[in-house]
Structures are given as structure tokens and as C-alpha cells.
Amino acid sequence: MNDKNIDILPEKISKLSPCLILDIREHVEIEKMPLSINNHHIPMKEILDNPSNFNKDDKLIFICAVGMRSKFVAEVFRSQGYDYAYSVLGGVPAINEQYANN
């Protein structure tokens, strides 16, 4: 996989295992549309305020509602030396469609 590409398709997540799947949505968004795969919920502001909570070698997969905020967060992390920060294309709906039956 090309680690230079920040965008990742939902079906490619398993190729990055082991990885941290980070749902950066707000609590109310999660209540409305839960994520159908195991993840850690850390709202976007908390993630951006505490990037040092992660190792620079960690594979970080950010997910939000449609992929805009997660791409922004992945770009911020990449700019700070986290070479394995990714954003899921299509956000939660794409993940849930891909993994709904797993």
C-alpha cells in the first residue's frame, strides 16, 4: 500500500492491521449512527489537542461522518511526522456498508 496516500477505502483497513481506528465524531453523532467496527471514540478537538498520545509509528485510521474532518486530522498528523495517518473515504456510511455483516 502506498503510505503517501492519506485516503483509504473501508475494505483496505484490514491490510493496515494492527491499527488504531479512531472515530473523531461528537457524541451526539455516534448516538445517531454508531460505527459497525471496533474503534476508539475520541472527539476531533481532543485528538488535535493531544497528538502525543500516539506513537509516530502507529497506524492511525481516522473516521468521521463523511470523511472531511478525518482527512483534515490525518493531514495535521502527517504534517507532524505521523506517516501512517489515514482518513476513511466515505466516512461512517462507507464503513458501515462494508462491515455491516461482519
Q: Strand order, main sheet: write it out.
A: 1-5-4-2-3
What string gives the helices and strands in order?
Answer: EEHEHEHEH
Arithmetic mean of pLDDT = 93
Indicate the proportion of strand residues: 15-25%
Rg measurement, Å: 12 Å
Largest beta-sheet details? 5 strands, parallel
The span between the termini is 23 Å
Q: Given the structure, what is the number of helices?
A: 4
The overall strand count is 5
Q: Helix/strand/pairing class, anyone?
A: alpha/beta
Helix content: 25-40%
- Runs in which pLDDT lies below 50 for 5 or more consecutive residues are none
| Structural shape | globular
Explain the overall architecture.
With 102 residues, the protein is an alpha/beta fold. Helix content is 32%, strand content 16%. It has four helices and five strands. It has helices at residues 27-32, 44-49, 68-79, 91-99; strands spanning 7-8, 20-23, 40-41, 60-63, 85-88. The protein has a five-stranded parallel β-sheet with strand order 1-5-4-2-3. Helix 3 (68-79) links the parallel strand 4 and strand 5. The chain is globular, with a radius of gyration of 12 Å.
